[in-house]
Design brief:
Elements: E1 6-10, H1 16-34, H2 41-58, E2 61-67, E3 70-81, E4 92-101, H3 110-125, E5 130-132, H4 139-148
């Protein structure tokens, strides 16, 4: 599906405010599933700082999706390594650590375009697979990732302690 006016580009210095807003939007969206997100602007700022550090440490990529020059989503891609139990030839992978599309643009192919670019960058790096995480209960995202070709790999379980 082609999205008219869509462009995927690297994050620029002037994108900070819009990224804070989108990271805050991601926190608000994820709150529905996990009930532990920081919903204020400072939470968005801290989430952005944390994600930026992960990308910088791994040498990954920060991408913005824009339609007609207006940012509508982002994707952060890090380079990771599986542990000692994994064979050397498949140890390295791309990890989609952050993916967000503004509500008005969901279901129109923006997320798919971001994932295609992440896939291209991962192949260009010489890595044979990508991973990403989905919060339990986010069936819409699970279906979208399934359509893109992602399959379950691991399940994290949580037990709340009183």
């Amino acid at each position: 599906m082609s999205v008219p006016g869509l462009k995927i580009r690297p994050v620029r210095d002037g994108d900070r405010d819009v990224l804070v807003e989108m990271f805050q939007g991601l926190n608000v969206y994820e709150e529905t599933f996990v009930g532990n997100r920081r919903l204020d602007r400072v939470g968005g700022e801290d989430s952005l700082i944390y994600a930026d550090k992960k990308v910088a440490t791994s040498g990954g990529h920060r991408l913005i999706a824009e339609i007609d020059g207006k940012p509508v989503g982002h994707l952060y891609l890090t380079w990771e390594r599986h542990g000692a139990c994994v064979r050397d030839e498949v140890k390295d992978f791309g990890y989609v650590s952050e993916l967000f599309v503004r509500e008005a643009h969901r279901g129109k192919g923006v997320g798919r375009a971001l994932l295609l670019e992440a896939e291209r960058l991962t192949r260009e790096k010489g890595f044979g697979h990508m991973l990403l995480g989905v919060l339990y209960g986010n069936a819409v995202a699970e279906r979208a990732y399934d359509r893109f070709g992602f399959r379950p790999y691991a399940t994290d379980l949580v037990k709340k302690l009183t």
